């Protein structure tokens, strides 16, 4: 399979590999999706303070497109609002990375992990902190 230059760069030198260590005043949230047995798994960790993602990290098992997508997504979403984790849509990233349509399933696993990370934050924070 031919990989774009961006995929090759993010695969060989991924940004924001995890895990994260919480710092004072940060809430550490996690989300996971997929499985190694199925061929693709992603775990996302977010350091959040006052509804803002300060740092993101990932661990992933899967194809180069998935690893590159995780790396790039962490760059795009942090720093930023925590709601961005739930709003992530893989289509723009597919175009940027040149991911073929048959690999959309891998990026949907990333989307699920990000949404699960948001849910972890949303269900553990008091209403006044959201």
Return Rg in Å.
Answer: 14 Å
Helix content range of the residues, please?
A: 40-55%
Given the helix and strand composition, which structural class is it? alpha+beta
CATH topology: Sufe protein. Chain: A
Count of domain modules: 1
Tell me the strand order in the biggest sheet.
Answer: 1-2-3-4
Please give the CATH architecture. Answer: Alpha-Beta Complex
Poorly predicted runs are none
The major beta sheet can be summarized as: 4 strands, antiparallel
Measured distance between first and last alpha carbons:
44 Å
Number of strands: 4
Describe the structure.
- The chain is α+β, with helices and mostly antiparallel strands and 130 residues long.
- The chain has a single domain (5-120), classed as Alpha-Beta Complex (Sufe protein. Chain: A).
- The model has no long low-confidence stretch (mean pLDDT 93).
- It starts with a helix and ends in a 6-residue tail after the last helix.
- Strand 2 (40-49) and strand 3 (52-61) form a beta hairpin.
- A 4-stranded antiparallel sheet has the order 1-2-3-4.
- The chain has 5 helices and 4 strands; from the N terminus they run αβββαβααα.
- The protein is 43% helix and 24% strand.
- Helix 1 (5-12) packs across helix 2 (64-77).
- The relative contact order is 0.22.
Summarize this structure as a short list of keywords or feature phrases.
130 residues; alpha+beta; Sufe protein. Chain: A; 4-stranded antiparallel sheet; 5 helices; 4 strands; 43% helix; 24% strand
In short:
This protein is α+β, with helices and mostly antiparallel strands.
Produce the secondary structure layout.
Elements: H1 5-12, E1 27-35, E2 40-49, E3 52-61, H2 64-77, E4 80-81, H3 83-87, H4 90-97, H5 104-124
Antiparallel strand pairs: 1-2, 2-3, 3-4
Helix pairs in contact: 1-2
